[in-house]
C-alpha cells in the first residue's frame, strides 16, 4: 500500500513541477546571452582584483621573509 502512495506522491510532484515551469518567465535568447557576458565580465574583473591583491601580499611577504 505504501508503494502506491509513494508513486502517487512522486507523480503529483512532477505534475506540479511541470505546472510551475510553465509559469516561469524565461529570458529571451538575447537576454540570456547578455546576462552570460555580464557574468563572465564580472568574474574576470573579480579574478583580476583578487590576483592583484594576491600579488601585493606575495610581494610584501617576499620582502619580509627574504
Spans of 5+ residues with little confidence (pLDDT < 50)?
none
Q: Please describe the biggest sheet, giving its number of strands, its sense, and whether it closes into a barrel.
A: none
Strand content: under 5%
Number of helices: 2
- Summed over residues and divided by their number, the pLDDT gives a mean of 94
Order of helices and strands: HH
Give the beta-strand count: 0
Number of domains: 1
What is the first-to-last residue Cα distance? Answer: 74 Å
Helix-strand category? mainly alpha
Helix content: over 70%
Please state the overall shape, judged from the principal axes of the Cα atoms.
elongated
**Rg from C-alpha positions?**
25 Å
Describe the structure.
Helices cover 89% and strands 0% of the residues. It has helices at residues 2-23, 29-65. The mean pLDDT is 94. It is mainly alpha-helical and 66 residues long. The radius of gyration is 25 Å and the shape is elongated. It has one domain.
Topology:
Elements: H1 2-23, H2 29-65
Short summary:
This protein has 66 residues and is mainly α.
Descriptive keywords:
66 residues; elongated; single chain; mainly alpha
Amino acid at each position: 500500500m505504501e508503494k502506491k502512495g509513494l508513486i502517487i506522491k512522486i507523480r503529483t510532484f512532477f505534475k506540479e513541477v511541470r505546472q510551475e515551469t510553465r509559469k516561469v518567465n524565461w529570458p529571451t535568447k538575447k537576454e540570456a546571452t547578455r546576462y552570460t557576458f555580464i557574468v563572465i565580465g564580472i568574474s574576470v574583473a573579480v579574478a583580476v582584483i583578487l590576483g592583484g591583491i594576491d600579488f601585493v601580499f606575495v610581494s610584501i611577504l617576499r620582502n619580509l621573509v627574504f
